[in-house]
Write a structure and sequence with these properties.
Blueprint: H1 17-26, H2 30-43, E1 47-49, H3 80-85, H4 98-107, H5 113-124, H6 136-141, H7 153-162, H8 174-183, H9 192-201, H10 203-207, H11 211-218, H12 222-233, E2 255-260, E3 263-268, E4 276-278, H13 280-289, H14 295-328, H15 330-335, H16 345-352, H17 356-363, E5 367-370, E6 373-376, E7 384-386, E8 392-394, H18 395-407, H19 417-426, H20 433-442, H21 448-456
Parallel strand pairs: 2-5
Antiparallel strand pairs: 1-4, 2-3, 5-6, 7-8
């Protein structure tokens, strides 16, 4: 057959650049979205940052500004104080740090100015766990030569810091940290001397649970060894970790859930909202000059308008999905995980008239701050498990019941996976033993043999 040229008509779906941009923004996390907005502000001259005006108070009459959902704020205060309090993107008042706690004690200690200055250098060199892991020579190199400070001068300053509260601060090793805490205990503390002997040179035997060799090395009986082990376990290997315990927020929640009167509402987190708008002056100037005068400016103006519409669509979709989740999982917010209902992406998609893939993009890397903690959207989606009476329970609720059963078990006679399955069946939850094993592994709970061994020790 000879080659020929022919025309054929066919229909197919294509994603326009606007749709691709909207999907890209929708599946981004809050951090990725913030970085994308910074990049857009630096690359597009028609966009400008507007940090002074809260997004919820902007004029939404035109599409040149971001139109954000207003309804969730109904019933709650609109004052700036409450909005700033709920802004998870802002900073909170920091807790007392370890260095501040130690400096307050140094200020009331009787010492010379030279010793106080050296002690402050030691305090500033401690890590977050309270350990001193810098050589004296390195600290001495930081002091001006005219002060004539030698490396050995820091030894007395370190001992002074180690005498401060909490015990164990300023230790250079784990062994020294535990010894400092044991030395701070009263001398009549039971098994204190045996515990100190174990810490001085036999921590490896303690870690490997070689009780016979440890008892022989410590030269004590079995009961005394048991008391010494419990005493060592009561010590804090990271004494500085208790200071500055402000929760590290590695993610910024996209939605805040709170109780307003008798209902639970989802609110877009003000900290995740972009402070971006169209620069009216540049946009009007480009419009008056006409699109043909500078195609590059016309393209940037069109991209800016597309971006703002995509941002509006992103937050509207997140709001709708969050409202649907909160409505379906009201029992969780009232009673906890035991009241979690089965929920699927398909159910939410059908209820909102969205495609299932769109709901999947919304639930990826999106977080919801609730009175019960910070959860990813996907946490509220759990598969359906049939109950004995013909109802349904979620896998999350089953795991919550398992956790309660294990927490209430006798430590000397822990429950096996088969016994857990039997107890769940008594409550109407028919779950196979292998499913119990899988759920227990997901919750990172040890097996019955490990729990029994821990109870014996």
């Amino acid at each position: 057959m000879a080659p020929a040229i022919a025309l054929r008509l066919r229909q197919h779906l294509t994603l326009t650049p606007q749709v691709q941009q909207a999907l890209k923004l929708l599946q981004m996390s809050a951090l990725e979205f913030a970085q994308e907005m910074e990049e857009a502000l630096s690359n597009n001259p028609f966009l400008e940052e507007n940090p002074d005006t809260p997004p919820a108070q902007r004029d939404a009459a035109t599409t040149d500004d971001i139109v954000l959902p207003q309804e969730p704020y109904a019933g709650s205060g609109n004052g700036s104080g409450e909005r700033e309090q709920d802004d998870w993107g802002g900073g909170a008042e920091a807790a007392l740090s370890l260095q501040q706690h130690l400096r307050e004690q140094l200020m009331i200690s009787q010492m010379g100015e030279r010793d106080r200055a050296l002690a402050h250098m030691i305090v500033d060199s401690l890590d977050d766990d309270g350990y001193f892991k810098i050589r004296f020579e390195d600290l001495a190199a930081l002091v001006p030569p005219e002060l004539d400070v030698q490396a050995d001068d820091f030894g007395a300053a370190l001992r002074l810091v180690q005498s401060l509260d909490p015990a164990g601060i300023g230790a250079r090793t784990l062994e020294e940290c535990l010894l400092l805490q044991l030395q701070a205990l009263p001398e009549d503390t039971p098994s204190r001397d045996v515990a100190m002997a174990i810490v001085r040179g036999h921590l490896a035997l303690l870690a490997n649970r070689e009780w016979a060799r440890l008892q022989h090395a410590a030269g004590c009986d079995e009961d005394t060894l048991h008391e010494a082990r419990n005493l060592i376990r009561s010590l804090d290997p990271r004494p500085g970790h208790r200071f500055g315990t402000q929760e590290a927020r590695y993610v910024v929640p996209d939605v805040l859930v709170k109780r307003v009167r008798d209902r639970w509402v989802a609110i877009i987190n003000p900290g995740s909202l972009p402070r971006v708008r169209l620069n009216r002056g540049y946009a009007d100037a480009a419009s008056h000059r006409g699109n043909g005068s500078n195609p590059s400016l016309a393209r940037h103006l069109q991209e800016a308008r597309w971006l703002l519409r995509s941002i509006e669509q992103r937050f509207n979709t997140i709001q709708r999905v969050a409202d649907a989740i909160v409505t379906r999982q009201r029992g969780f917010f009232e009673y906890g995980e035991v009241a979690m209902k089965p929920l699927t992406l398909k159910l939410i998609a059908g209820e909102l008239g969205l495609h299932e893939s769109t709901v999947c993009r919304v639930t990826n890397n999106k977080y919801m701050a609730t009175p019960r903690g910070l959860f990813e959207f996907k946490h509220f989606f759990s598969r359906r498990l049939a109950t004995e009476n013909g109802g349904a329970a979620s896998a999350t609720a089953v795991r919550a019941v398992m956790k309660e059963l294990i927490a209430a078990e006798d430590p000397k006679a822990p429950l096996s996976d088969a016994e857990l399955a039997r107890l769940l069946a008594q409550q109407g939850l028919r779950v196979a033993r292998r499913t119990i094993t899988k759920y227990r592994a997901l919750m990172r709970m040890p097996s019955v043999d490990v729990r029994r061994a821990d109870a014996r020790t």
